[in-house]
Amino acid sequence: MQEGSEEVEDPRIFTHNITEICTQTLGFQPCCLEFSPQFPGYFVIGTYELDDQGKEPSETRKDAEEEFLKTVEPQDRSGSIVLCKLSNDKVISDNRRAICQTIPYPAGGLLDLHFHPYHPGIFGVASSTGSISLYKFYVKGDNCTMEHMSTNQLFGPEIVIMSFAWCPFPASDPSIEHAFRDFVIATLSNGEVHLIQSGHIIASGGKLTLASRLNVHDDQAYCCAFPAFPPPEGSVSGITVFSGGDDCKIRIATIPCHPANSRSPPFPPGVEARTAMDGHNAGVVSILPLPIDTGSDGWLLLTGSYDDHVRVYRAYDFRRPIVLTELYIGGGVWRLKLLDDAHTGLVGTPALSKDEVVFRILASCMYAGAKILEVYGSQHGEWQIRIVGEVNIHKSMCYASDVQPGKTIAWDEKKICVSTSFYDKLLCVWKYDPSWNIDSRLEKLISKTHQAQLGQK
Predict the structure, then answer these.
(1) What pLDDT digit, counting tens, does each position of 8-24 carry?
(2) How much is the pLDDT for 99?
(3) Residue 207 has pLDDT above 80, yes or no
(4) Where on the phi/psi map is residue 88: left (φ > 0), alpha (ψ -120 to 50), or beta?
């Protein structure tokens, strides 16, 4: 398919504003991936192998999810960490095809992977056997390489770490900066949400220690997130964390801060407050705090659920949350990532005034492939969500996708993305061109895809 081509005969594959660059069938089951923020030509894949040789993949979503998340003996699952390289927007490598380096992870499958926000030469992976491992990522010769740094057995081997998140910011106060810079939150298959501390991650050699339990869901806890902004300078109110679970709720906990002259630890045995947000009709599997400063008027969250919807919430510490808008997009919305920075007054987007903002989102939608969304609104006005692009080449669960970090922040810059699917082991590299405005023809193509999905629901 050529860039700008008018040939889009099958709307279930690519919409007009997306160009397929290359596809490869991998020798492993991809479960999570992320581009290096320091070396954006490279991305790392975490794999999750169900060691059931000869067994056919489950045909229904419910059976597949149960198979994927079931509690089994540790030796029934294994994983690996795979390094891939893009050159001229295509996956290249030595004679091992797309793979530049593979590090086996025999102790369990890998469900989540993230580079450290302040140490971009370090990334972590979360396993199906209760551990988080850290790796160095650096240049060696003409290529980048990965090197094991530490493995931290934080929970029992029967516990699956479903997700984790690095604290993305330090607060302005020096003592808070030291306390929170290397914090991690993690969600578990037993429903618990935990706070983990590393101290100085480089000086400690990547050692992680369990700090406290923040919250508990009534069923598996799938996802977690820190807010988009730190507490105000000098704040002692604490840092809020969000988690989503199979109990159909988002739960909120607060980690207290301490004054600068305090020598007490940055967290007590418990937390200051716990609240729960309703409004989902199935498990909450992704939470993306939108980076819009609402002051003291709560937070804006974009959520994804097994009920195939995305929703914009205004969430508060103690008041009932408000659903500002929602949209059915299909497939079960496993992960949500910002495609690029927010934009105000976007030309071609309906009814944007100077105080409105637009976010582009990359969504991994399990059985409905990868989608690009636009979420737009204002702090105190209405919000809307629309689908502006679709990749439905994947024939099984699309758990992992990411966008290549851009060299510029131009709103109309073309974006290179990678998406994968689990059972068919497919990797697809594609380009999204935002200069293709949503016109009636594209709306019709997306509408046809949605009608097909609704018929299969």
Answers:
(1) 344 458 888 999 999 99
(2) 72
(3) yes
(4) left
Token readout for 374 is 């636009």
Residue 18's SS3 state is: strand
Residue 25, number of CB atoms within 10 A of its CB: 10
- CA-to-CA dists, residue 299 to 135, 188, 276, 322, angstroms: 33, 24, 14, 11
Q: How far out from the chain centre does Cα 392 lie?
A: 19
Distance from chain centroid for Cα 376: 20
Instruction: Give the Cβ contact number of residue 349 at 10 Å.
Output: 17
Contacts 24+ apart (CB under 8 A), 235-242: 235/171, 235/173, 238/272, 239/167, 239/171, 239/180, 240/299, 240/317, 241/185, 241/193, 241/195, 241/214, 242/287, 242/289, 242/301, 242/315
Q: Which residues of 417-438 are buried (b: 16+ CB within 10 A; e: fewer)?
A: bbbbbbbebbbbbbbbbbeeeb
Dist CA 273 CA 254 (whole Å): 6
Kindly provide the b/e burial profile for residues 392-411, where b requires at least 16 CB atoms within 10 angstroms of the residue's own CB: bbbebbbbbbbbbeeeeeeb
Contact between 184 and 152 (Cβ < 8 Å): no
pLDDT given at position 413: 85
Per DSSP, the three-state class of 63 is helix
